Amino acid sequence: MKKIYFLLFGMSASVALLAQSVYINEIHYDNAGGDVGEFVELFVTNPQPGTLSDYQINLYNGSNGTSYDSETFDNMTQSASDDTNGFGTGRYYTWYPNSIQNGAPDGVASSGPDGLIEFLSYEGEFTGSGGPADGVNSINIGASESSSTGIGTSIQNNGTGTWVSGLAETPGENNINDILPVKLIFFQAKNRNLITIIKWQTSSEINNDRFEIERSTDAVRYETIGAVKGNGNSLGLNDYIFMDESPLTGINYYRLKQIDIDGRFEYSDMVSVEVDKSSIRITPTSTYDFVTVNTGAQSSIILRSINGQVMNQQSNSEGNFTVEMAHYPQGIYFLTINKNGSIQTEKVVRL
After folding, report:
1. 8-state DSSP, 166
2. May I ask the CATH class of domain 281-350?
3. CA dihedral defined by 171, 177, 182, 186, rounded to 10 degrees?
4. Which of 41, 162, 216, 302 sits a CA distance of 20 to 30 A from 48?
């Protein structure tokens, strides 16, 4: 799921990156045959810079460490609207230079009014000479392209600092491998009185539209049994609850399908609950109007006041009962269920 934090490349870089808002996000520099559509894409989190001409990209030659081309953000292709990825919410800026050198190694640097922001390299590391990366050691992204790389692919950052090559290029859009926007703290399910109560908690959400709850009896084929609206963008703890009021007999497997606003999705881990429908279900046990009882078999019930007075008495071959409580005085009552000679008594509160 998409996280709101990113990978820091060593302790020395941590302080500088904490306030970072400009990220080199996607690169294409080599492919099979003649070079086609080479580009560098950046992601800039909101608020957008007031003066785009104060920010620029430099391409660096790894053989001598010097910059061989540059461009300012105001001359790049800007995405028309905001997007959200692992870095946050912002806009993409894409530059299509005449040529990007093929590595072993070469690099890309981003800079702004306060100087260097990032200095990344591919196919090795080197030290910049001149320009914004002067005297700075590059950080190897650990992914590369070659003369056999497919046309229309690129190297992409997943929003946490991890780079992957060979993905379908997405200039100006979210990357294929972006981490999805929810950090799940826990996901659990418990059955009580033949109702499965499903709870989960998140510690951060970005671009989160909803959760769909799915159920299965074999942990292979799932069906959607409900949905809960997400909190969109949130950095705090969010608690969710869903009740499956008609669980299936036996083991029920549950999972969450977390869905982005843009339609992308990811599944949670699975949890399971065993349901024994031979048990007795009484709901609710505190009520203003009525109580329902389900035993799943021939049964009888007796409702008594706290003084022992019989208030209601029923028998049913299916074991399904409704006890009207609205006309009784407020207070504590006792409900006794006789199912095949097995007797159980539960307290019921008339509110």
Report:
1. E
2. mainly beta
3. 180
4. 162
In the 8-state DSSP scheme, what is residue 117?
Answer: E
**90, 110, 108: which is closest to 49 by C-alpha?**
90
| Geometric angle at alpha carbon 171, from 130 and 234, rounded to 5° | 95
The DSSP-derived string for 84-96 is: EETTEEEEEEEE-
Name the average pLDDT for the chain: 88
Separation between Cα atoms, residue 56 and residue 73, nearest integer Å? 6
Pull the structure tokens for residue 165.
């090559």
Going from N- to C-terminal start, the domains of the chain cover 22-168, 183-275, 281-350
Domains 183-275 and 281-350 share a fold: yes
**pLDDT higher than 70, residue 8:** no
Domain 183-275 has CATH 2.60.40.10: yes
* DSSP secondary structure string for all residues of 208-267: EEEEEEEEESSSSS-EEEEEEEEEEEESS-EEEEEEESSPPSEEEEEEEEEEETTS-EEE
Is this structure's pTM higher than 0.85?
Answer: no
